[in-house]
């Protein structure tokens, strides 16, 4: 569903992503961890064709994201740290607009059904997004993914700034999407949420994928220790 092969991005002399090969299959959730500047966002941006690779390939649903940018985006829902929605439109109007971009015209009853499934409280459906908390906006993002019947979800720091309850709710929604066979790639600094929601965890450093785990095979303390050792933060452990 999502794959990269020797994906590389250079910005001048800086190699932001360095021969990165990864794969996320249907129903899997890969969390990418790594320090600021490790190359997580650049990887996601190449899958979205926001950034052109220097070499290697980024593939969505078997299609090269660089050569088929419009077709591949039909399969993708992208939720960044701050989801761009129209602040003066209501939740339902935003959902109608963003699901309509891919040619779907959904009845009001379907739109409200998706907002409900995404856990947004009913009294917010007809309120303007400008009045929403970040957690509520993220739920509209999930409703868009549901309405698009998305195959691939790309998430960049989606839980940063969410309180623990909202972050937990968001994690539960990701599990629901996994259950529908969505392939999910999530860049995050939140080791706890990564351990709870991921099926697979990767640690990036200097543009390279330097560690990979099956999430069930590693405990949270082990993950934290490995992460810190990988970052050479050995002094924190002593
Ligand atoms: N458009 C750009 N032009 C030049 N350098 C860039 C550009 N985009 C990213 N970089 C650099 O590429 C490297 C990787 O950045 P990237 O944003 O992918 O890291 P990240 O792992 O997502 O970091 P963070 O956790 O801070 O979001 C960084 O050194 C960054 O400064």
Automatic annotation (TrEMBL):
<keyword id="KW-0813">Transport</keyword>
<dbReference type="InterPro" id="IPR003439">
    <property type="entry name" value="ABC_transporter-like_ATP-bd"/>
</dbReference>
<dbReference type="GO" id="GO:0016887">
    <property type="term" value="F:ATP hydrolysis activity"/>
</dbReference>
<dbReference type="InterPro" id="IPR017871">
    <property type="entry name" value="ABC_transporter-like_CS"/>
</dbReference>
<keyword id="KW-0547">Nucleotide-binding</keyword>
<dbReference type="InterPro" id="IPR003593">
    <property type="entry name" value="AAA+_ATPase"/>
</dbReference>
<protein>
    <submittedName>
        <fullName>ATP-binding cassette domain-containing protein</fullName>
    </submittedName>
</protein>
<dbReference type="InterPro" id="IPR027417">
    <property type="entry name" value="P-loop_NTPase"/>
</dbReference>
<feature type="domain" description="ABC transporter">
    <location>
        <begin position="2"/>
        <end position="231"/>
    </location>
</feature>
<dbReference type="Pfam" id="PF00005">
    <property type="entry name" value="ABC_tran"/>
</dbReference>
<dbReference type="InterPro" id="IPR051782">
    <property type="entry name" value="ABC_Transporter_VariousFunc"/>
</dbReference>
<keyword id="KW-0067">ATP-binding</keyword>
<dbReference type="GO" id="GO:0005524">
    <property type="term" value="F:ATP binding"/>
</dbReference>
């Amino acid at each position: 569903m999502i794959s990269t092969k020797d994906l590389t991005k250079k910005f001048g002399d800086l190699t932001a992503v360095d021969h990165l090969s990864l794969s996320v299959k249907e129903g899997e959730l890969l969390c990418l961890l790594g320090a600021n500047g490790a190359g997580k966002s650049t990887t996601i941006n190449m899958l979205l064709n926001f950034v052109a690779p220097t070499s290697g390939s980024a593939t969505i649903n078997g299609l090269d994201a660089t050569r088929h940018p419009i077709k591949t985006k039909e399969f993708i829902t992208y939720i960044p740290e701050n989801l761009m929605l129209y602040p003066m439109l209501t939740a339902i109007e935003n959902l109608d607009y963003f699901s309509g971009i891919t040619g779907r015209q959904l009845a009001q009853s379907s739109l409200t059904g998706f907002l409900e499934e995404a856990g947004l409280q009913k009294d917010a459906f007809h309120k303007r997004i400008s009045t929403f908390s970040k957690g509520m906006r993220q739920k509209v993002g999930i409703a868009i993914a549901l309405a698009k019947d998305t195959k691939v979800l790309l998430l960049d720091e989606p839980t940063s700034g969410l309180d623990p309850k909202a972050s937990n709710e968001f994690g539960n929604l990701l599990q629901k999407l996994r259950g529908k066979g969505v392939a999910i790639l999530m860049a995050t600094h939140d080791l706890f949420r990564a351990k709870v929601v991921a099926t697979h965890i990767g640690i990036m450093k200097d543009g390279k994928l330097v560690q990979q785990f099956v999430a069930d095979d590693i405990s949270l303390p082990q993950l934290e220790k490995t992460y810190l050792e990988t970052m050479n933060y050995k002094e924190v452990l002593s």
